[in-house]
Amino acid sequence: MIGAFLRVAWHVMRKDLTVEVRSKEVLFTTLFFAVSVVLVFSFAIVREGRAPDDVAAGILWVAVSFSGTLAMGRTFERERYNDTLRALLLAPADRPAIYTGKLLGLLALLALVEIVLVPLIGLLFNAPVLAFPGRLAALLALGTLGFAAVGTLFAAMLVRVRSRDTLLPVLLYPITIPVMIAGVRGTAALFQATPDLPMAQFWIGLLIFWDAIFITLALWTFEPVMTE
Amino acid sequence: MRSDFDKLTVVDLARHYGRRKALSQVNFTCETGEIIGLLGPNGAGKSTLLNILATLISPSLGRVEYGACTAAEGGADVRGRIGMLGHDLFLYPELTARENLVFFAQLYGLPDAPAVADASLARAGLADRGDDLVSGFSRGMRQRVALERALLHEPRLVLLDEPFTGLDQASTAALVARLRERQQAGCILVIATHDLDVADGLLSRAIYLKNGRVVGTDSDSRGLSERYRLAIQ
Predict the structure, then answer these.
(1) pTM (predicted TM-score)
(2) For the domain with range B32-43+78-232, which CATH number is right: 3.90.226.10, 1.20.1740.10, 2.60.40.1120, 3.40.50.300?
(3) What ipTM goes with this model?
């Protein structure tokens, strides 16, 4: 049962990544947007090589969330073009496994974006991104997971709605505020002049809590929301 | 084990979108080896009915029985016995024909997906084009790949939404031959079409739909155009 679930999720993720490798559409768009956000903020905020406290953490998460929203919309837009979403839903596979595959594909793309973003933030905002790489990676991974878990569900729900591009951020941002706050505060705790590791650890724990709630709800609701 | 069935029964089926009734009081039964045509003007409810039969839309009222069970009772097992060819073909243009077929074979849990895909490509007459991107195919070639995708898992119930649209004479003849072959193999085929010339002589039975209601059925599929005109008027 679990084997079949993981098999379907793996095939859906691999298909999404193959399509992305061929088109490079979502990756380049998302990356370009994320880098633009960071550059604009760095020109506006950084003076004489110094940025105000905690700004780097905030901008990192703004770039991740904005570019992530863009990627979510596009990955489901593809399934709409040729109505392939219906073919996926018609397959005798667990529908939550299809959701999981789409989520994993999105996470892989966002991980690539973050691999570019983090050094850029370190460079432009003089942030100590290499001081605690394990904890920073955990914050980014858990924060992105929680954000993408909700976003993937909403993007799938809205795929047939005409105003989906407007509705996705309107629905997504209020619900993922706890994840964003935990991500920003945890990252800020690592970036500050005297890093506060217990505080970072606390926010990591809170992210695990929110991720568990969001993923459980998304897996539970995906099947009913996808049946018209 | 997948629950197979030899009979499809539609009982008092209705689908409402708010106050609009897309389907109302639809009843019919079909058995293995039948090709059923859903005929009617645009907006008659043909695609809605196909989507309900495919389990993609829930009916507002009534039920569809796949043998002894409904879609809710059969779940994935029932879905595994249904193949659908939609108007939009359900193919990824960024993937090759082979990659599309292998992906769906894997999704359906078929053993040896690459071999299944190769056999399907051969049946579609595209064995030498299997590694070409679907985006480079003509409408007829895409349609052949899409049909084989829908038939990969040898479904009992095959649903086709306007399958003859945009096909030339040779492609239409090939499609008709493939559908007849599936009919001989004991499939139940339900086709929504406007193409009465092609449907003439192909259908075991025609069901005429108008404004979401069945306005007539017809088991003599010859001279379909004239009887369609009379039924729909």
Answers:
(1) 0.90
(2) 3.40.50.300
(3) 0.88
